[in-house]
Structure formats: structure tokens, C-alpha cells
Design brief:
Elements lengths: L2 H9 L7 E8 L7 E4 L5 E8 L3 E8 L5 E8 L4 E5 L3 E6 L4 E7 L3
Antiparallel strand pairs: 1-2, 1-8, 3-4, 4-5, 5-6, 7-8
């Protein structure tokens, strides 16, 4: 999936008053990351294949080792998400994309 399509996905809900930011990237591709945040924060994505047959995506806050979320995508289709702020995660295997939406605390 091209960068232009990823940016299009990222912008889809950015006008919603509940959305704080969005992160979109291709599965297994750290360099495809696109993001926008109303609070000016910056994140980075790290992908790795894990022993036991699953793919792990860790989303870090800037250049720190602090994680915003950790997402495990298992070969059998199971997904496990740990998050440290309100988020929504969408994974499309057919499009090969991960989209994470950050929400404002209300």
C-alpha cells in the first residue's frame, strides 16, 4: 500500500472532536508510518516476528522506550492489544494495514 493511501486513511477521522491523533502503517513496515496528532506528540513503530508464531507491533512515544501500545497479531487470527491510553485499533490483513486512533479523555 502506498504512502498516499496510508495518509488518506490517517486523515479520515481527524476532524472528529473526540480524536486526538491517528497512526497508520503497513503491516511489518516501520518506514511506512504516517501520523497526525492534535497534541503535537510523535510516535514510532517497531515490528518484530516473535517465537510462537506471532507478529508484535510496539508503538513507542518519540525516541523514548515508553510504549503507547503493544499489539500482537497471531498467525491463527487472534489479536492481543495492551494500551496505556484510550485507543482503537483496526488491523486489515487484506489491505495489510494497521490503524490506531487515539481518543481524548472525557
Amino acid at each position: 500500500m502506498g504512502k498516499a493511501r496510508l495518509e488518506e486513511i490517517m486523515r479520515e477521522q481527524m476532524d472528529s472532536p473526540d480524536v486526538l491523533g491517528r497512526i497508520v502503517c503497513a503491516l511489518r513496515d516501520e518506514d511506512s508510518l504516517v501520523q497526525a496528532h492534535h497534541d503535537g506528540r510523535d510516535f514510532r513503530v517497531f515490528w518484530r516476528e516473535c517465537f510462537g508464531g506471532y507478529l508484535r507491533c510496539t508503538i513507542f512515544v518519540g525516541n523514548s522506550e515508553d510504549a503507547l501500545a503493544q499489539i500482537d497479531i497471531h498467525d491463527d487470527g487472534d489479536v492481543r492489544v495492551e494500551a496505556w491510553e484510550p485507543i482503537s485499533v483496526t488491523i486489515s490483513r487484506s489491505e495489510g494495514v494497521l490503524c490506531m486512533t487515539r481518543f481524548r479523555n472525557r
